[in-house]
Amino acid sequence: MKLFDLTGRVAVVTGGNGGIGLGMARGLAAAGAAVAVAARNRAKSEAAMAELAALGAEAAFVALDVADPASCRAMVEAVVGRFGRLDILVNNAGMSIRKPPETYTVEEWQAVLNTNLTGAFVCCQAAHPVMKRNGGGKIINIGSMMSVFGGAYAAPYSSSKGGIVQMTKSLATAWARDNIQVNAVLPGWIDTELTRDARDQVAGLNERVLARTPAGRWGVPDDLSGTAVFLAAPASDFVTGAAIPVDGGYASEF
Question: Model-level pTM?
Fold first, then answer.
C-alpha cells in the first residue's frame, strides 16, 4: 500500500479556485489525484486549473453555487460524468458577513449558514451513494478555529463552522460501515482574500493573531496541502470523525 499515493483517485474541491481550497487542490494534484474545481467564477477557476495541470494533474471546472441544493447535486453528477467516479470530496466553499450580532438580519444569517453548512451537507449527501458504490471514499469538511472559539463579529460564521464539526462526527458515524471516512480540518488564521478583508474590517486583528500564534506568522494556503493529502489517502483509513487544527499552535496558546 502506498500510504500517500492518490494516483487514479478523483477529487472535487468546492471553492477550489483560490485560498485554502486551491492550496488543498495543489496538494491533492501533486499526490496524483485528478481534481475538479467546483466554483462560480469560471475565469478564476481556469487559472486554478492551469496551476493544477502544471503539477501534472488532470483538472476540470464544474459550475457550483453551493447555496443552491440543486446545484450541489448537479455538481456531483457532473464530476462523475466527467471522470467516471468520485473518491474525495473537499467541502471548502464558504463566506462570512462581519458585523455585531444584534444587527444581522435573518436573511444574512441564513445566507451564511446555507453556504457554509447546508451546502456542505447537501454535497455530502450527493456524494454518499457514489462513494458507497465505489467501495468507499473520503470527505474533508473545512471548519475553522471559530468552530472552537467565538467570533464577536462573526456569529453566523462561527455557528456554521461549529455545525461543520458536529455534522462531520455524525456522518462519520453513519457512513463508517460504507468505508467512507469523514473528517474536518480547522484552519487557523490563513492569509487569504477572506482574511485580508477581515484585517481591513477588524481593527488590531493582525497584531492579535501574530501575538497569539506560537509559529509567529499567518498561515498560507499550502500549509493545508499535507493535511488534505493525509485525509484523502490510505494513510488515514482508520481516521474518521476527527477535527484537526492547522493553526500554527493558535489553539494551544494561552
Answer: 0.95
